[in-house]
Amino acid sequence: MVREVSESCMDSLLTEIVSSYCNRFYATKPELAARRIEAIGYQVGHQLTERYTIERPRFNDHLEAIKFICKDFWFELFKKQIDNLKTNHRGTFVLQDNKFRWLSRVSVDPSVEISGAAQEPSVMSENKSAQATGLHLYFPCGIIRGALSTLGIPCAVTADISNLPACSFVIRIKV
Amino acid sequence: MIVCIAVVGHQNNPLYIQSFTEADDALKLHHIVHCSLDVVDERVNNPKKSGPMLNETFLGLLYPTENYKVYGYLTNTKVKFILVTTDLDVRDADVRNFFRRFHSAYLDAVSNPFHVPGKKITSKTFAERVSNIVKSVSFHTTG
C-alpha cells in the first residue's frame, strides 16, 4: 500500500510550525525557536529512517549512509534525488538540491526586485527574507541530522540558500 | 518455545525485555541476553567470519547453551533484537521470518509520536502484538 501525504498540507504545516514557534511561543528568543523546530525535525528524521531502512543491509561507512540519504531517503520525502553531492573526504558533505520542494513556493520580497535605485533598503529586505527562509530550513536540517544520528553518525547540519530555489545542506560529521 | 525477547538500543541500553515463561527465571534470561550483546559486537566488528551474510540484519545463531539457543538481529539503526528459545532444532528461515515480523512491530511502536527515542518502549499495543507474534510462531521442524 502506498501512502501519500498532501503536499499543500505539508507546506502549510511547515509554514505554521515556523510561524508558531517564531512569533508566538518563542517570539523573544529566536535561537530557542530554531532549536525547537530542529528538534521536531530530528524526531521525524529518526522515525523515518527507522522505517525506510527496514529492508536493507547495514551500511559499511559514512559515504554509504550519505548516499542513502541522497537517493532513497530524499526520494521518499520529495520524489526526487539530491542533485549534487560534494565531499572533502574529511567528514564534510554538501548536498545540493536544485529545486528544494519546501522552498519552491517561497516568494521573495518584491522590494528586492527593484534594487539599484536605493541600495540600502533592498539589502536590508533581502536579509530579512533570507532570514525568514532560513527559519524554514531548520526543519529539514533536523530531519537530516536525525536520520544520520539514527544510523550511528553524529553530525551537525546547516543549510545554505544563496540562490533560491536551490538549496544546499552542509553536513559535518563529528569525530 | 520462545522464552525471551529483548530489544537493546545502540548504546546497549535495554529498550524492551520480555520473558514468556511461567517459572521465575527472568533474571537468568536477562543474563543470557546480556551475555549475547558481546557476541553481537564481535560479529559486527569482525565481519569476515560471517562470510556471505556480510552486513545482513539477521545475525543468525549467536551461541547455543545447554537449554537455549540465542539468535540475534541488528537493524541498520544499531538496535539489537535478541531471541532466546528452548527449541534446539530450529530452521534459520523461521527465525528470520519471526524477526521480520518483530521488526515491523517495533517499527510501528517507535513511530508513535509519543514515543521518546532511546527510552523504553512502554506501549501496551506493542506488548500485545509481540506476544501474539510469539504465540503464533513455532519453530518445530516438519518431520
TrEMBL record, chain A:
A Pfam match: TRAPP
Native source species: Tagetes erecta
PANTHER family per UniProt: GEO08327P1, TRAFFICKING PROTEIN PARTICLE COMPLEX SUBUNIT 6B
Domain of life, per lineage: Eukaryota
Transmembrane domains' residue ranges: none
Gene Ontology biological process terms in this record: endoplasmic reticulum to Golgi vesicle-mediated transport
Family listed: Belongs to the TRAPP small subunits family. BET3 subfamily.
Record SUPFAM superfamilies: Ligand-binding domain in the NO signalling and Golgi transport
One annotated Gene Ontology cellular component of this protein: TRAPP complex
Name under which the protein is recorded: Trafficking protein particle complex subunit 6B
InterPro entries, sorted: NO_sig/Golgi_transp_ligand-bd (IPR024096), TRAPP_component (IPR007194), TRAPPC6/Trs33 (IPR037992)
TrEMBL record, chain B:
Keyword tags: Endoplasmic reticulum, ER-Golgi transport, Golgi apparatus, Transport
Highest taxon, organism lineage: Eukaryota
Principal location class: endoplasmic reticulum
Entry's transmembrane regions: none
One GO BP annotation of this record: endoplasmic reticulum to Golgi vesicle-mediated transport
InterPro entries assigned: Longin-like_dom_sf (IPR011012), Sedlin (IPR006722), TRAPPC (IPR007233), TRAPPC2L (IPR044760)
Gene3D superfamilies: 3.30.450.70
GO cellular component term, pick one: Golgi apparatus
Compartmental location: Endoplasmic reticulum; Golgi apparatus, cis-Golgi network; Golgi apparatus
Self-association state and partner proteins as the record states: Part of the multisubunit transport protein particle (TRAPP) complex.
UniProt family annotation: Belongs to the TRAPP small subunits family. Sedlin subfamily.
Annotated protein name in UniProt: Trafficking protein particle complex subunit
Natural source organism: Tagetes erecta (African marigold)
